[in-house]
Design a protein that fits this description.
The complex is a heterodimer of chains A (97) and B (474).
Chain A: H1 10-16, H2 23-40, E1 64-65, H3 75-81, E2 85-86, E3 89-93
Antiparallel strand pairs in A: 2-3
Chain B: E1 3-14, E2 51-52, H1 53-65, E3 69-70, E4 73-74, E5 77-80, E6 90-93, E7 100-101, E8 104-109, E9 112-125, E10 129-132, E11 136-140, E12 147-153, H2 160-177, E13 189-199, E14 209-214, H3 217-236, E15 244-249, E16 254-260, E17 270-271, E18 278-279, H4 282-289, H5 296-307, H6 311-318, H7 321-332, H8 337-355, H9 366-377, H10 383-396, H11 400-407, H12 415-428, H13 430-437, H14 442-454, H15 461-471
Parallel strand pairs in B: 14-15
Antiparallel strand pairs in B: 1-12, 1-13, 3-7, 4-18, 5-6, 5-17, 7-9, 8-9, 9-12, 10-11, 13-14, 15-16
Helix pairs in contact in B: 2-3, 5-6, 6-8, 7-8, 7-9, 9-10, 12-14, 12-15, 13-14, 14-15
Classes of the chains: A alpha+beta (97), B alpha+beta (474).
């Protein structure tokens, strides 16, 4: 069983998701999220022993494709979507982690 | 103070499929940059992933080879992070319900058998390749979305040597099973290394350091040696190891801090809503089990049993599947097993090593190899002739029987001819004959050599020696 969450820190989530929101929104969303969480926590009133968490809405499994090559996109089209490119590679600011 | 080392490896292995994990893009490695990409692997809005069944099959086969329990139910999750090697801003991976659980790899450590446990094997997609230049970085997304199997070991290895042994055995098994080429140069097999030390007598593992993305065995060995020395020095001086991720700098020969625990990633895993769970029944798993080859260690035991060759030979021959197959095919063509084994281990492996070629690339067939060895076995040709013909067969192939006939290389076992040569040699070398009769053994070799010369290499050397001794009345 995963640790029960009673609070989600909107500021932390925004930081992780690279979202920039203003202070007003921060307060507004924090209240909304706390509400939602309180609603979901109602589940705790039930005895859920031995019940697996529902991860998928439909009772469908095993959607596979065969290992067969299909055409890729023309490179010019792909590179047109990128902000910049050089030598057929997508160009980004220098990154070294 | 003595310290105990604990090493665990997370090994990423690219699977040998024709297409990517969640789209039909080609996986050939020799394509120009950014030519094998589509809306799915570029994460374009609205594009949906569809799972490659072959990748699931190869992962399950790996699990079966490594003694894992195959999950009846597994699912995929999103691992969220921001880095330009993954366009979607998340990698599809398996966080909570991996395809294979448990299992292990049997290695030899200090001459004794040791079992390295595997925690689990999960399936995920590889990221793109980033090239760094002076003023910018360039990205080639061809690799993005390649099926990647991650084999996570328990921290059961206690030295760099054991880690090498584990990786070598793992690679051998995976190549045998045909699930991956495990080509290190092409980055088919990369490992993250976890390492900690603790004082002898302490039960609990020490704080672990992770070293990311090592793609050579040599690099892993060097990084482990360096990290053991570094951690031992810190702890011996009364310091404390902080949990962190480090990077191996091969040029400097040391590990460097990448990020500390405070800056550790929070991947915010959640179930991938665009994919359905994988449910495998016994029938499917059994049908894949039937595709498994014999394990290298099983093959070795069978070789000893079936062909009555020494354990050492069996070990060498079973180490690589193509060599093992070549050995068995040559025997099936009628050659004598121990003879085949000797010739593979000396002549064949030497020429392969010198030429840098693979067995699959050379024209020598098991049929012509067997034919050569049978000619030698029947004494139709002698050893020097066989050794002379072999490199030619290795380079160009051909029918040894026809070559021997055409070039008149058949061994002279006709005692009349050899007696004639012996007579000449004895008359021409009175001093050597005297030495021999005086008890100098090597003198006989010289006389035999002279007969070989006269016969242009075709005399049967054993018979030549016999004839000389007979003529000299020894």
């Amino acid at each position: 069983m995963e640790e029960k969450k009673t609070h989600i820190d909107v500021a932390r989530v925004c930081e992780l998701a690279h979202f920039d929101i203003c202070a007003e929104e921060m307060t507004e969303f924090q209240a909304q999220l706390d509400n939602i969480l309180a609603y979901v926590n109602k589940l705790d009133e039930l005895n859920l022993d031995g019940i697996e968490p529902t991860m998928y809405g439909q009772p469908v499994v095993n959607s596979f494709r065969e290992d067969v090559v299909t055409p890729s996109l023309p490179r010019e089209d792909v590179l047109r979507n990128a902000p910049d490119s050089a030598n057929d590679e997508i160009k980004v600011p220098k990154i070294v982690e | 103070m003595k310290y105990i080392v604990s090493i665990g490896l997370e090994t990423h292995v690219q699977l040998k499929t024709a297409t990517k994990m969640f789209c039909g893009c080609n996986l050939s490695t020799d394509c120009p940059p950014n030519t094998n990409i589509c809306p799915v692997c570029m994460g374009l809005p609205g594009a949906l992933p569809l799972m490659n069944k072959e990748a699931v099959k190869l992962t399950v086969m790996s699990g079966l080879m490594l003694g894992c329990e195959i999950s009846k139910y597994s699912k995929f999750d999103r691992k969220n992070y921001f880095y330009p090697d993954m366009v979607k801003n998340y990698q599809i991976s398996q966080n909570t319900h991996p395809l294979c659980i448990g299992g292990g790899v049997d290695i030899t450590a200090n001459g004794a058998p040791k079992h390295i446990r595997i925690n689990h094997i999960h399936l995920e997609e590889d990221a793109a390749k980033i090239n760094h230049y002076a003023r910018h970085s360039g990205i080639d997304y061809n690799r993005c979305g390649t099926p990647l199997m991650e084999i996570v070991s328990e921290p059961d290895m206690s030295s760099p040597d054991e880690a090498m042994e584990y990786l070598t055995t793992l690679k051998q098994i995976l190549v045998y099973a045909g699930v991956s080429d495990c080509n290190l140069e092409d980055g088919n097999m990369r490992s993250d290394v976890n390492i900690s030390i603790r004082p002898e007598g302490q039960e609990q593992l020490g704080t672990k350091i992770e070293i990311k993305n090592m793609n050579t065995f040599k690099g892993i060995y060097a990084a482990l040696e360096h990290e053991i020395a570094r951690q031992t020095a810190v702890v011996s001086a009364g310091g404390v190891i902080q949990q962190e991720t480090r990077r191996w700098d091969a040029d400097l020969g040391e590990t460097i801090t990448m990020r500390t625990k405070e800056n550790a990633h929070d991947y915010r895993y959640f179930p991938e809503p665009d994919l359905l769970p994988v449910v495998l029944d016994d029938e499917t798993i059994d049908s894949w089990r039937k595709l498994l080859p014999e394990l290298p260690s099983q093959k070795k035991d069978r070789f000893v049993e079936q062909y009555a060759i020494p354990e050492y030979d069996a070990n060498v021959l079973s180490a690589q599947l193509p060599v093992a197959d070549f050995f068995e095919k040559t025997i099936a063509c009628g050659a004598q097993p121990k003879m085949v084994s000797n010739w593979i281990m000396t002549e064949l492996l030497r020429l392969l090593g010198e030429s840098g070629k693979e067995l699959a690339d050379i024209p020598l067939t098991p049929e012509s190899f067997a034919s050569l060895l049978k000619l030698l076995d029947k004494k139709t040709i002698n050893m020097p002739t066989a050794k002379e013909l072999f490199p030619e067969l290795f380079e160009k192939g051909g029918d040894p029987e026809a070559m021997v006939k055409e070039r008149g290389l058949g061994q002279v076992s006709d005692s009349g001819a050899i007696e004639g040569f012996a007579k000449q040699v004895i008359e021409a070398n009175p001093k050597v004959v005297e030495d021999f009769l005086g008890g100098k053994g090597p003198a006989l070799q010289f006389l035999v050599g002279q007969i070989m010369k006269l016969s242009r290499g075709k005399a049967n050397p054993q018979m030549a020696a016999e004839v000389i001794k007979k003529q000299l009345g020894v």
